[in-house]
């Protein structure tokens, strides 16, 4: 048989985790291959890039799409677990789960239809009105969204100590703090009620930025937390701070930082993942495609 597409793979993925226990993706992949009775050759067949097998790539995308739709969760890095919505999908789709079915869930629809130029436009199925350039841009946007989601899951699974290190590494990658040695000397972890670290704003150390890092998983950071951080800045006679969390900030928290004189930047989980991708922290280039065009100068006969 041929290797199944990622939509056909979705239900067998849920079938593999239907007992409700977390299961390693490597084991799920193996059980999906067994379900479709793939030969050794089919299991080993790789994408043109040669960096990943077709079946692993398709199982991975099935996981991403179903997580966006709430059919499964990622309790720890490299594991997945079915949700009540996933069990419902198995009942409602006894043969095959499709993207059309997942679109019944607003959170998936927002993810699937997002593009840089049309944030909430809903394209028709099998839409071919886009130019190849637009299709490429759409595909790249989808890949970046998926990467950000996976990156955030990995961040949440890390320890609080690693998260604090990640925050400093991000500031360095963005050009703050000078060298790693300088940052190491300038960063200290204290118990003064709200300051997790200090880093130079510039290589010369003419000013400093105070850091607060909270690796919350599902807690929304509210105004009291941000006020406490602002109070800690007052104790240090500091004017600038960055509060980074892996979760989200409440509307009151964001409104508060706009009302005070001190400059406090709030970075939530989604923004954190986006910045890490932008500044190549914790990510690496998977493959590169060269998009070429006609060199008009070459054909100029004058």
UniProtKB/TrEMBL annotation:
GO terms for molecular function: DNA binding; restriction endodeoxyribonuclease activity. Residues 6-91 form the Restriction system protein Mrr-like N-terminal domain. GO terms for biological process: DNA restriction-modification system. Transmembrane segments: none annotated. Keywords: Endonuclease, Hydrolase, Nuclease. Pfam families: Mrr_cat (PF04471), Mrr_N (PF14338). The keyword Hydrolase applies. SUPFAM superfamilies: Restriction endonuclease-like (SSF52980). Residues 158-276 form the Restriction endonuclease type IV Mrr domain. Coiled coil: none annotated. InterPro entries: Mrr-like_N_dom, Restrct_endonuc-II-like, Restrct_endonuc_IV_Mrr, tRNA_endonuc-like_dom_sf, Type_IV_Methyl-Rstrct_Enzyme. PANTHER family: MRR RESTRICTION SYSTEM PROTEIN (PTHR30015), TYPE IV METHYL-DIRECTED RESTRICTION ENZYME ECOKMRR (PTHR30015:SF7). This is Restriction endonuclease.
